[in-house]
Design goal:
InterPro entries: MCP, MCP_dom_sf, MCP_transmembrane, Mito_Metabolite_Transporter. This protein is mainly alpha-helical. The protein has one domain: Alpha/alpha barrel (Mitochondrial carrier fold), CATH 1.50.40. Helix content is about 75%, strand content about 0%. It has eleven helices and no strands.
Length: about 350
């Protein structure tokens, strides 16, 4: 018994000594942080967990900044895609007419309808897609260098497609809530849901239509994201690689590469974005059925009833939404990555 007590006492003394050492070192550590806060921050940023998380955190922050800037354009884009549904003829909606209608029906801030859902979507979607893309690119670069090769466009495209598809799957509920909130104003006043925010929209959709309804339009959303990321991330990375030896400065290279990426992202993804909007906006008809059974049915009906060019209605507006969003996102992400190196 006495030996056990002595062992416990020795362990207690050792723990006390360790605690005293830590306490003695604490003022020195605090002083060091005060004298050189940058070095202390760098030490934290260099921990394995933080290094792995940074691409995701930086990507999400960049996407949320960009969405706050671009939200009014996104609102107009959605309303353009829903205008004249099911009809080949009739008044042709324009960005200006849609903007006038929104402002005439309410307030200027109505252009920011669905911002909470947009921010949630970016917090999930852009965090995942940019973080995964960066992670995939690092892995592919290491593999290419081990073989004495340089990473090519095919690897960039694969990384962009995979990152986009995975990110779109997990962010679909927020995307659905965004479309519902933005399209709510098109309904008769008595039929509007008048969502109070993204949380209210998600809970009511899940309660009234079922949890799985939160993944309505997931297939075109995933295909759209893969097409968009193929255009945005792959072409941005490729354009930066091509411009690396040009006379442009780093900032000009990033801006030019972002503009190129925005065009290709818009071109490849707009038809899928159009179908995603239609599928996510739809609600049950009086007979209990939906206007569209799925992406293929939506594609066929739009071709038959509205014509193939309807898929590219609002391309200019979509580009104005995608290109600046891509530029702001990629610029902010580039800057955040620079200061957290």
């Amino acid at each position: 018994m006495s030996s056990a007590v002595e062992v416990a006492k020795r362990k207690g003394d050792a723990a006390l000594a360790t605690a005293k050492d830590v306490a003695a070192d604490a003022p020195a550590a605090v002083q060091k942080m005060r004298e050189d806060p940058k070095a202390a921050t760098k030490g934290l940023l260099n921990t394995p967990f933080i290094r792995a998380a940074l691409p995701f955190v930086n990507g999400g922050a960049a996407g949320m900044v960009a969405t706050t800037v671009i939200q009014p354009v996104d609102m107009i884009k959605v309303r353009l895609q829903l205008a004249g549904e099911g009809a080949k003829t009739g008044p042709r909606a324009t960005p200006m007419s849609v903007t006038r209608d929104i402002m005439a029906a309410g307030k200027v801030m109505d252009l920011y309808t669905g911002l909470s859902a947009g921010l949630l979507r970016q917090a999930v979607y852009t965090t995942a897609r940019l973080g995964l893309f960066d992670t995939f690119m690092k892995s592919l670069t290491v593999r290419a260098e081990s073989k004495g090769q340089k990473i090519g466009f095919a690897e960039r495209a694969t990384a962009g497609l995979t990152a986009g598809g995975l990110a779109a799957m997990v962010s679909n509920p927020a995307d659905l809530a965004l479309i519902r909130m933005q399209s709510d104003g098109l309904k008769p006043v008595a039929e509007r849901a008048n969502y109070r925010g993204v949380g209210d929209a998600l809970m009511r959709i899940a309660k009234n239509e079922g949890v799985m309804r939160l993944w309505a339009g997931a297939y075109p959303t995933i295909v759209r994201a893969m097409a968009l990321n193929f255009g945005q991330l792959a072409f941005f990375s490729e354009a930066k690689a091509q411009l690396k030896d040009s006379s442009m400065g780093p900032r000009a290279q990033t801006l030019t590469a972002s503009a190129v990426a925005g065009f290709f992202a818009s071109f490849f993804s707009l038809p899928f974005d159009f179908m995603k909007t239609r599928l996510q906006k739809q609600s049950k008809k009086p007979d209990g059925t939906f206007p569209y059974k799925g992406m293929l049915d939506c594609f066929q009906k739009v071709i038959r009833e509205e014509g193939p060019l309807r898929f590219y209605r609002g391309f200019a507006t979509y580009y104005v939404r995608i290109a600046p969003h891509a530029m702001v996102t990629l610029l902010v992400a580039d800057y955040l990555n620079f200061i957290t190196k």
